[in-house]
Amino acid sequence: MDDLIIILPCEYEAQFKYLKNEEQNEINCSVCKNHMIDVRECFEMTRNKFTIKQRELELEMNDFSIMRKDFITKKDELKLNIRKKSDDVINQIDCRREEVKLAMNKLIDDYYFDLLETIRIRTSNIESNLDQKLQEIEQYEILNIAKDSDITSKIELLTNNLDQTQKLTESLKKLLTDPNQDDKIEFYFSNNYKYNIDEMFGRIEPDSNVQYKKIGKLIGHNDFVSCFESINKDKILSGSSDKTIKLWNKTTGECLKTFYGHKDSVNTLCLINDEEFLSGSFDRTIKYWNINRKQCLKTFNVNEYYYSDFKM
Q1: Is-above-0.70 flag for pTM?
Q2: Coiled-coil annotation: which residues (predicted)?
Q3: Does residue 91 lie in a domain region?
């Protein structure tokens, strides 16, 4: 670049290196010495601008050729580095999986033993109450009627004895039917619980080079939506924790069909063609569907409790 010939305003020539190193923008012409030269304007002259750009391109192409050769030589090494970094992330995910499993197992076990302790205490209280009632029943005796009592007093005492005996008899019936009647121990649970697995486990951030644009909203599911599959350009399938699969019109947002059959959350979909697809669920089944007939053609039972995806 330094040996590049620059045409001066006076039509004389000078090397680029003598002009670029000048600290001042305006200098005396070093050739004819009869005028001042604005260095920036000199470089912006059409002929000089073309010459400078041409040399810059030559130098850049030279660097590019060297780098391209180096890139081609190291292509396999670069791919190896990419795979190594991906493997490192996979190892992190594997470690995180074990950490979450241990944490969840401990959380579940701690809660399990808390439930057992609650049952033990409640059972002990129920047994104590039962013992008190049995003691009361064993010690129960009707009040004796004094011989010298008048008839009205005798009737009143008999009535009281009868009422008390009836109450104890009814209490005995209930105890014999269900000794836990006053404090039943029952266990409730739901398969429709919600959880935020990506917050608990972790996630891969979206590709920063991909630009996302909101084009609409599909409203209809009653729970978390876990999977999508596009059908041609204007339809989309969605699977949800509400146990259903829905077919949508992408443009209008209208729900065209709803597919029922799974007994637990639908967590993966696989499109076979524009008329058929597969769905996988936490109910340990894979279902084979016909879209036009809105019908499940076949159900496959699987042994694994959880799988995240399948492809044709």
Answers
A1: no
A2: 123-175
A3: no
